[in-house]
Amino acid sequence: MGNSAVDFLLASPATGAVDRVWFSGSGGTLYARSRNGRLFETSDYEIWMPSQNAAEPARQPEPPVVRIPENGARLVGSGFGRVYALGRHLFRSDDGGRSWANLTAFKTDSVIGFGQRSVAVSPANQDQIVVANDFGVWRSMDGGLSWMGLNDLLPNLRVQRILATPSGTAGTRVEIDGMGAMELPPGGSVWQPVDDATSRGDAVRLRAYSERAGVAATAYGKSGTTVYLGTAGGRILISRDDGATFDATDTGRASGPVERIFVDPVRPDVALAALGGPGLPHVLRTHNAGSYWDALDSNLPNVPAHAITGERAAGAVYVATDQGVFWAQMDLDNAGSPNVNWISLSERLPPGMGASDVRLDAAGIQLYAAVEGYGVYATAAPHRLRNLRLVNAADFSTRAAAPGSLLSVIGGRVMSARGGNLDYPVLAAADDASQIQVPFDAVGPNVMLALVTGNGNVRLGMQVQPVSPAIFVGFDGTPILQDAESGLLLDARKAAHPGARLLVSATGLGKVTPAWPTGMAARVDNPPAVTAVIRAFVNGAPGPVTRATLAGGFIGFYVIEVQLPAINNSGPAELYITADGVESNRVQFLIEQ
What we know:
Blueprint: E1 18-23, E2 30-34, E3 39-42, E4 49-50, E5 74-77, E6 83-86, E7 90-93, E8 101-102, E9 105-106, E10 109-110, E11 116-122, E12 125-133, E13 136-140, E14 148-149, E15 159-164, E16 172-176, E17 180-184, E18 192-193, H1 197-213, E19 217-223, E20 226-231, E21 236-239, E22 247-248, E23 258-263, E24 271-275, E25 283-286, E26 294-295, E27 305-311, E28 316-321, E29 324-329, E30 343-344, E31 355-360, E32 366-371, E33 375-380, E34 389-392, E35 406-410, E36 414-419, E37 422-423, E38 426-429, E39 433-437, E40 446-453, E41 456-463, E42 470-471, E43 481-483, E44 501-507, E45 512-513, E46 529-530, E47 534-538, E48 541-543, E49 545-550, E50 558-563, E51 571-579, E52 582-583, E53 587-591
Antiparallel strand pairs: 1-2, 2-3, 3-4, 5-6, 6-7, 7-8, 9-10, 11-12, 12-13, 13-14, 15-16, 16-17, 17-18, 19-20, 20-21, 21-22, 23-24, 24-25, 25-26, 27-28, 28-29, 29-30, 31-32, 32-33, 34-35, 35-39, 36-37, 36-40, 38-39, 40-41, 42-44, 43-44, 44-50, 45-46, 47-48, 47-51, 49-50, 51-52, 51-53
């Protein structure tokens, strides 16, 4: 769900800070040491591998020069008679420092970013220069006239926290060490800087709570007016008045810093805490507002825990540690046995890497993990195999259903479904998810859906409205939009053009005319038309809807044809639809001239 590269409008994508680079004796291998001390090597200048036995060469004395080009610049000799100076920029002198050429400046900026830390010159070619700086590793093959980054596959991005999972027009948002808030736009390939109110607000609240409580606070969790405040020494305080006053709670022998606190949004007496430090405990649970905390380490590795999240109703807990991501099933409402069975989820993550954060999406069906150096990964939350969740098939939300719409049952194989004396056709079934269609004759507002599953009978409540529009998106938030002329999908590489016609895939548009049987694919020629009034909005302005029908050859899919304005700004655009005035989710796509 996001690699280790960031778009800072430099020569190439950037990554985290790198302190030193050097070549092997033959020049066939390039080595890099990141800011946190990890060593990497590459032989093809694309794929980086962890380096186990790289002997870092000793630093050579600075060569004498007539003058330096920048105050505080550090001098490095190349062995070819050239001298380089490392400062905000990279400089080169061929005459002992009498004159200097700035190799990285473009107007007042640097094409590779500021803060040059190290330079290496290939022993086989004096014009092959590699620089390490606060934005990664950069290479020039012409003595510094042009540059390209070597950062796309360098796992050196320190994601500290997952701020948000994809929702509407926003993609995954994270906080990166030394860089601040970043977003992976829906369909994007690299992170983009973003002004995130969540990140700024959390920092302000933590400082305010710390001052009011008179402690060195390291983390807080909040639900309603209940606030839990963790300290560097393993203490957890609680406030029932929105942080105006705090009282101590009993965390037993906890001593490591409290790194993250999860508070149940419905029942704030339930909370979980992740603790760092070398000693136990690393995971704490309370069901009575901190009157007592259970240590839940059990078979969890004795390593620092950095983040924790859960779902109380399902009894699922996830924790990010220095040895990866683990999950366990437990009772969060009552005092229970502290002997829980932690299961590792790191088998398909980069080996040997720690996780700095873990988070569930709003519907509780996707699990996201920030992996040291590598970015963010996502997978289906494993607790859904035990606790089914009914969501809209288009945007994975818990919005109401509508006649004819598609629903996904996450977490199990459904053999049959029935509600309100109507059969709900099962269109697809697998062990981890199934898809059903709401009958066109279904009425609401509330329906109890009876499911026959591989694990027995299950009853799930749902809302049914006449219309409940939703545009189909992927798990990364990329909408399913097509160019009407070519039929090609639009994404980060294929943009729409002003005046073009878009085909929008949606569900939840309700009844059609002529009436169509539930569970049957719509005819391709003259498919039934939607009876509700459909409108489309691009960047807030209405756009002509030329048709809205069932999608020919599909079940439960609708297609809306939208005419884009002939004049439109280039760049990201926001799209949403309405059915009889009810709004859909909002999605983002690109427009270019």
